[in-house]
Amino acid sequence: MDMQNTVTRTLARVIEAIDTSDGAGVKLRRSLGRGQGTRVDPFLMLDEFSSENPDDYVAGFPPHPHRGFETVTYMLDGHMRHEDHLGNRGELRSGGVQWMTAGRGIIHSEMPQQERGRMRGFQLWINLPAAEKMKAPAYRDLQPAELPVVELADGTRVKIIAGEFEHSGQITAGPIQGLTTAPIYLDVHLPAGASFAHPVATGHNAFIYIYEGSLSVGAAGASQPLPERSAGVLSPGDRIEAQAGPHGARFLLLAARPIGEPVVQHGPFVMNTPDEIRQAIADYQAGRFGERAQAQ
Ligand code: FE2
């Protein structure tokens, strides 16, 4: 990469996660989407669930609808079963990802398949542009073996869920490609004191969520610490740099092309106008999510 024409992104803003619950009482930490002004277009929400206490997760997420965006569930530890009204059924296990495009409507459940032990992972919501909000719903179950992992000489480990990871002129592509928002979704493990650098398209929005250890974000010598279990929103630029603290760091790196359209959200429906939200509620209540999909 040409170092002379790069602008390293800095930490523009920190969105600290708050404790909340969703579904039938699953305990979560929500950073993006926790309140007004906490979205990073096109990313709407990021929840982390992490508990060894079954009371925190065993009730799961019984059947509920979505319209207008995509949900991405990444499991670090545990086992959940996804079922939806289209007849999809998937087992989401440690290291796996479920990429669901709600489009015009899906009704699904995500239920824990364990009664003890640790359950840990993330759910990310990525918006769809107006032209794609009413597209047919789709679902992809990505088993751990389908997600490439790149290990670098210094012990850095990068798992690629969406987009590409570029290092020393080598590009490794993740399984999710070709979306309008062109998301990059990486899970990065840095050993103690290691540095990380990666290009990101200039006009794309980016943030880092650190879920373990300590991390400083920005060019070496001018970086700022990102508090653990917080989302750090990055300034414009074409390169991301970060350095792990003395105990290493594990973080998610997300970047995507912003959509730049109005966002109107009502619970699990994310549209462009209040009228479209009213339509979504009416369609769901009239049982039209299932019918429409089956008519295809
Ligand atoms: Fe859901």
Class, according to the CATH hierarchy? Mainly Beta
| Secondary-structure element series | EEEEEEEEEEEEEEEEEEEEEEEEHH
Strand-pairing-aware structural class: mainly beta
CATH superfamily: Jelly Rolls
Provide a descriptive summary of the structure in words.
The chain is mainly beta and 296 residues long. The chain has one domain (3-295): Jelly Rolls (Sandwich). The protein has two helices and 24 strands. The strands form five sheets. Strands 1, 13, 14, 17, 18, 19, 20, 21 and 22 form a nine-stranded antiparallel sheet that branches. A seven-stranded antiparallel sheet has the order 2-3-4-11-6-9-12, with no helix packed on it. A four-stranded antiparallel sheet has the order 5-10-7-8. The site of fe (ii) ion has 5 residues, from strand 5.
Give keywords.
7% helix, 296 residues, binds fe (ii) ion, seven-stranded antiparallel β-sheet, 2 helices, mainly beta
Furnish the topology, listing elements before pairings.
Elements: E1 11-16, E2 18-22, E3 26-30, E4 43-51, E5 61-66, E6 69-77, E7 79-84, E8 89-93, E9 97-101, E10 106-112, E11 119-127, E12 138-142, E13 149-151, E14 157-162, E15 164-167, E16 170-173, E17 184-190, E18 195-199, E19 205-217, E20 224-226, E21 230-234, E22 239-256, E23 264-266, E24 269-271, H1 274-285, H2 288-295
The protein binds fe (ii) ion.
Fe (ii) ion binds next to β5.
